[in-house]
UniProtKB/TrEMBL annotation, chain B:
SUPFAM superfamilies tied to this protein: ISP domain (SSF50022)
Keyword set includes Metal-binding: yes
Residues annotated as domain Rieske: 12-106
Domain of life: Bacteria
PROSITE patterns: RIESKE (PS51296)
Protein's UniProt keywords contain Zinc: no
This protein's UniProt keywords: 2Fe-2S, Iron, Iron-sulfur, Metal-binding
Natural source organism: [Actinomadura] parvosata subsp. kistnae
PANTHER family xref list: 3-PHENYLPROPIONATE_CINNAMIC ACID DIOXYGENASE FERREDOXIN SUBUNIT, FERREDOXIN-RELATED
Single GO MF annotation: oxidoreductase activity, acting on paired donors, with incorporation or reduction of molecular oxygen
The protein, known as: (2Fe-2S)-binding protein
Length: 825, 113
């Protein structure tokens, strides 16, 4: 293979970024691998990666490995010689040679320049120091190395200033914030993203960004970096000083043109190319991507470079010598700092234009369209980009517009979404980040990708900023005629065993598997253990075999090994059981004594009406339990946690039922019951709902006539949902029976970590009622018996303190931070 | 481990293997350095730095399989042989460790640490 190559034409590519690599991919796709011996030079010492996703890497949402488009093996497999980490200094277009920093000279027959852009550095005093480049603590945001350096520095610093309120600056601000830094965003322009948005949109965006806790200053021109050895602040033109220990400069980009200039190639703002992406007056040199200037335009987003790369490849391989690039109408669709933004065309109306605006700043929603002579010439969508597909089409192709202009901004019970998808042209770009058209998605589905994940994996659609994922899903569904398959692994109970819960349970029963290691040996691929699956399996087996489960301690999460909740400094929190929130003077005295004796740094009343001792050392846990002499409150496990109660009929003047007594009875019955996710309950004495029963996994409400309502599937954590009414019953005994039956049904059927707020709507309240209340399937007695057996097997885990089950069960694991670390209030 | 080589390594006897339950980890202080030692279900032993590079979590309290340890605080994973993190964190340091004929855990550090 290589021997033949020596006689092939030599294609040299300078720049191994998104455009360079894409151009080569397109060339290979047209058989260019046979015709050319390909050599690539890249200044960055890596294969090529999706630069867009650096924002995710900075925010910790993607890892570095996950953003690589082509790793080093790809080059070898395609016979490409890659000089990674090598900068090209000059091209001699008479001798047809490329001169690199490492002293090598490489001959070419065809040359592609794809050197991209670099950060623009505004003129700010003290930005650079003579010896080292940037001042200590000052960063730019363009490469993987920049991103790594920022992350490393962010770990040890507290306050960052980001200069620049465009796309990059906002992403940098949001990313750094996830590292716990306090952020001030300084923008010299009058409002955020003034390149893409109009003023009102910019203000709505500002409010959304401020709601995230980022401080924003507009019309703020930075004039100086302060600090002798490292940056300590910045000064603004108006004299104000903002203190900080880290600065990120994201004030725009400039095309890399030095190389072309030094080589005598035509440069204006970028390297000037014709419609074939050929450098002006150069028969064999092409330029592509952000470094190229086409018909007076240079671009700063990826969308145009996909088409540029296609045209270049058509032309250089001769696949279509007439291929021509006519420029791109930029319709940007992005997720910036968590906010959906779409913008296209002009951003402010001219006299005579129709201008339709909707703004709801409190929800972060802003939409505007500009219509000129019945054609859409501009649109801005913020916060809600539901109409973007239609608007992009109308903008790109000049489609006729609905007479009711408001339909441009909202779906008014109009045609359903599929019609929109069906109408989308095949060449319409769906994923801007990876340049995937509707046609390409449809083809992959027709070629066998039957799930959304499979189609995404094959095309990379949706793997960029993610703003197109719902559209991708719609298109896949449409292309598969509604026969999309779910991603198989999404239905597995745990990641390490390729079975959904019902099949998994059937196999476990069939083989009589009673320990986690036995399950791996029998059912995992190659019998391979998986650390992330152990906890879910342990919970399942304990539920299935209440009496003869073989308990392997390593299958337990640390909390379940030491019966306490691990804290950020490696200490634990101890929550004794206080049923129904009712305690006694003697108990309180004992808790106080223990807290004093063991230097408990924080004593806190929890939302579940209990007392939390935070910051207890692992080695002290057994002594603390012994001296408290109270049972565990199970505040750490995936299990039945607590029953919150209100005062109820004994004392409250509104009380309709004895909520406290019923809450205590429920907790006594089901304490410690293992479950797929934690279960928080409540009983409240009347519909005033002081115990918040409507938003619990199971909530009981006393109503007129001595009756009780049971709600299931409520939540008031990160997710808020009012529970669905399961049944209204006559007395406390019935409440306890139905509670047990529902909990058991949930334990048997919910996925691992699936809270009831997801489980109940997934199964449907009618279905649950039919089974649990009306016993449609005749399994009620079995469920009752199963939950009884499980409840009877209860044993207070804190009794393990008296005799540890494993050597060193309570030995310290030596966390980094000196103890105690939880701040004392 | 008597190598006779002058690039000094230090051999530390940590105590009997059965101090570490099967499938779990325990922390040791070796020359003032915190090391987590794990006993794999497959029979092997592994030693890595006891402090999670992410936010200082106690690695010895993590769950393991034959390949990785998962930190209990934020569930970042680390390869037990290379220390590299498939979830994108900086690597953990790893140490050679084995069980000698008397069933004692033996850990090797280079002379300087
Ligand atoms: C953090 C971040 C977020 C972004 N988010 C988005 C987004 O959401 N949407 C969007 O559309 N766009 C986004 N962009 C812009 C997008 O990444 C660029 O448009 C795209 O990477 C341009 O591709 P390119 O190949 O022209 O340049 P690059 O990807 O920069 O590639 C150029 C390569 O050439 C190398 N090079 C330069 N000079 C030389 C030389 N002399 N010798 C050898 N090699 C050289 C460089 O090191 C670089 O690797 C983002 C950019 C960044 C930095
Ligand atoms: S929920 Fe009703 S009974 Fe209970 S404390 Fe509130 S008002 Fe009183
Ligand atoms: S401290 Fe280990 S994962 Fe966060």
């Amino acid at each position: 293979m290589t021997a033949q190559r020596t006689r092939a034409e030599r294609l040299v590519v300078i720049g191994n970024g998104m455009a360079g690599a894409r151009a080569v991919e397109e060339i290979l796709r047209r058989g260019g691998g046979e015709r050319f011996a390909i050599t690539m030079f890249g200044e960055e010492p890596y294969g090529n990666y999706n630069r867009i996703l650096l924002s995710n890497v900075l925010a910790g949402a993607d890892d570095e490995a996950g953003i690589f488009l082509n790793g080093l093996p790809w080059y070898a497999e395609n016979g490409i010689t890659l000089h990674a980490g090598t900068r090209v200094r000059r091209v001699d277009h008479f001798a047809r040679t490329v001169h690199a920093d490492d002293g090598t000279v490489t001959r070419y027959d065809k040359l592609v320049i794809a050197v991209g852009s670099r950060p623009f550095i505004p003129d700010i005093d003290g930005m650079r120091v003579a010896t080292r480049g940037f001042h200590q603590g000052v960063f730019t945001f363009r490469t993987i190395d920049d991103t790594r350096n920022m992350i490393r520095y962010a770990r040890e610093h507290r306050r960052a200033v980001v200069i620049g309120g465009g796309l990059l600056g906002l992403e940098a601000a949001r990313g750094l914030q996830t590292h716990g830094l306090e952020i001030t965003l300084l923008h010299a322009g009058p409002y955020l993203m003034n390149q893409q948005l109009d003023a009102q949109g910019g203000d709505v965006l500002r409010r959304s960004v401020e709601r995230l806790g980022i401080r924003v200053e507009t019309s703020a021109r930075t004039t100086a970096m302060l600090g002798r050895h490292e940056v300590t602040g910045v000064r603004l033109a108006d004299g104000r000083v903002i203190e900080c220990d880290m600065v990120v400069v994201a004030a725009g980009i400039r095309p890399n043109t030095e190389l072309a200039e030094a080589s005598g190639l035509p440069v204006e703002r970028g390297i000037v190319v014709d419609d074939q992406m050929r450098v002006l007056d150069e028969a064999d040199i092409y330029a592509v991507g952000e470094c190229a200037q086409h018909r007076g335009q240079v671009y700063g987003v990826v969308a145009p470079l996909w088409e540029q790369a296609r045209v270049l490849a058509d032309h250089v391989t001769g696949a279509d010598p007439a291929a021509a690039y006519h420029g791109s109408r930029i319709a940007t669709k992005l997720k910036v700092a968590g906010v959906d933004v779409a913008a296209m065309g002009v951003s402010s109306p001219e006299p005579g234009d129709e201008f339709v605006v909707f703004a709801e700043p409190s929800r972060g929603v802003y939409k505007s369209v500009i219509i000129r002579q019945d054609r859409l010439v501009g649109a801005t969508l913020l916060g809600d980009v539901g109409k973007v597909a239609f608007l992009t089409q109308a903008f790109d192709r000049g489609l006729p517009l609905p007479e009711e202009r408001v339909r441009l901004l909202f779906d008014l019970g109009g045609p359903p979404a599929e019609v929109g998808v069906a109408e989308l042209a095949d060449e319409a770009q769906v994923c801007n980040c990876n340049g995937v058209s509707k046609g390409a998605l449809v083809d992959t589905v027709r070629n066998g990708a039957r799930s959304v994940t499979a189609a995404m994996d094959r095309t990379r659609a949706g793997k960029g900023c993610g703003s197109c994922r719902s559209l991708v899903a719609e298109i896949v569904a449409w292309a598969a005629d509604g026969e999309v398959e779910e991603d198989p692994s999404a239905s597995w109970y745990v990641p390490g065993i390729p079975l959904a819960k019902p099949e998994l349970m059937a196999r476990i029963r069939e083989h009589g598997l009673k320990s986690v290691s036995a399950v791996f040996a029998a059912l995992a691929p190659d019998g391979r253990e998986d650390a992330r699956s152990k906890m879910g399996l342990a919970s399942l087996l304990r539920m299935m075999w209440p009496d003869d489960y073989v308990d392997e301690r390593d299958a337990r999460f640390i909390n379940d090994r030491v019966h306490a909740n691990i804290q950020k400094d490696g200490t634990f929190s101890v929550v004794p059981q206080i049923k129904g929130g009712c305690t006694t003077a003697a108990q309180l005295r004992r808790i106080a004594d223990v807290a004093e004796k063991y230097d408990v740094p924080l004593i806190k009343i929890t939302g579940g009406q209990r007392i939390d001792l935070l910051g207890v050392r692992k080695e002290d846990l057994p002594k603390v339990w012994a001296e408290l002499d109270m049972p565990s409150g199970y505040a750490y496990g995936k299990s039945f946690r607590t029953v919150k109660t209100c005062v109820g009929s004994d004392f409250c003047r509104y009380g309709l039922g004895d909520s406290t007594a019923l809450g205590i009875a429920i907790e006594s019955r089901f304490q410690g019951l293992e479950s797929p996710a934690k279960m928080k309950l409540a009983v409240t004495g009347c519909p005033r709902n002081c115990a918040e029963a409507y938003v619990k996994d199971l909530g009981v409400v006393a109503v007129e006539g001595g009756r009780w309502e049971i709600y299931v599937g409520g939540a008031a954590g990160a997710h808020v949902r009012k529970g669905d009414l399961l049944a209204t019953v006559d007395g406390p005994e019935q409440v306890i029976t139905l509670t047990g039956r529902f909990l058991q049904y949930y334990r048997e059927n919910a996925n691992w970590l699936e809270r009831t707020y997801a489980f109940v709507p997934r199964v449907g309240i009618e279905e649950i009622r039919a089974i649990v209340v009306d016993d449609r399937d005749g399994i009620a007695a079995r469920l009752d018996e199963a939950v009884r057996a499980a409840a009877d097997a209860y044993r207070d885990p804190w009794r393990e303190g008296a005799g540890p089950v494993t050597p060193g069960q309570f030995r310290t694991a030596l966390p980094l931070e000196p103890l105690p670390k939880v701040p004392v209030r | 481990m008597t190598t006779g080589d002058v690039t000094a390594v230090t051999v530390h006897r940590l105590g009997p293997l059965d101090q570490v339950p099967v499938g779990e980890g325990r922390a040791y202080v070796v020359n003032g350095v915190q090391v987590a030692v794990f006993r794999l279900r497959g029979g092997g032993v592994r030693a890595v730095s006891a402090v999670c590079p992410h936010a200082g979590g106690p690695i010895a309290d993590g769950q393991i399989d034959e390949a990785v340890v998962v930190c209990p605080l934020h569930q970042h994973a680390y390869d037990l042989v290379t220390g590299c993190s498939p979830t994108g964190q900086p690597p953990l340091r790893t140490y050679p460790v084995h069980v000698d004929d008397e069933g004692c855990l033996v850990l090797v550090t280079d002379g300087t640490s």
